[in-house]
Amino acid sequence: MDIGTLPIAGNFLKRFATCDIRDRDELIYGAHLRVFKPHSKCYAYRPATQGWQTHPRGQVLSTFGCGKLGELDLTFVAGRYGTSIAIIEDVLSHYCISAMLSGRTECQPAGSDASETASGRIGLIYVGAPGIRLRTTDDNDRLNIWLSAASLEQRLTELLGEPLDEAITFVPTIDWLSKAGQRVRRLIRLLCEELGTPAPFAGNDLTRRSFEDLFIYSLLLGLEHNY
Q1: Which residue, of 11, 74, 157, 223, is most buried by count of CB atoms within 10 Å of its CB?
Q2: Can you give the pLDDT at residue 3?
Q3: 131: nearest Cα among 104, 97, 108
């Protein structure tokens, strides 16, 4: 698997709680979302392509996974067929950094006719607000990293030396081949490699927190936003 042109370690899922979907009703009615805690009530999924209708019974349609490292919540989805996804509740005031490992995802903000597409070298960063709609293609694998708004706002306040007067709004796309994108992409690769080890970051809380700081500051100082 890769983010743009950068391979990531495939064994990072060892530390994820995972669930396989073998029936379209499981997707629609959300039995699989038990692995997505604390985000389990925030999404509505619907099949979006013909493959859902013709797929042989009993074979895996999608795999969902959820992991956590300190302040970082990670979700992984491998979907054989395209899916429509609506965020129906506030995802705990979190920002999502979405990296495509294969396929494409179209993201349409609430109340907007415009959309952005993630595929290959282009990732997404958005707030998990109600009304956002996502649509994925067939053969779609993606890694999402969720960060609380409070974590980002606290660090940006420290950088600016004064309180924020409005929420942070990022330019919604990330070019993984830009200088800032490459920096964030390398950190995602390191994160995945560490998650594939028995004790990520040597099991040291100080090292883990230092990585979290580096990741968050790289977003704030590298990616374009309203500050």
Answers
A1: 74
A2: 52
A3: 108
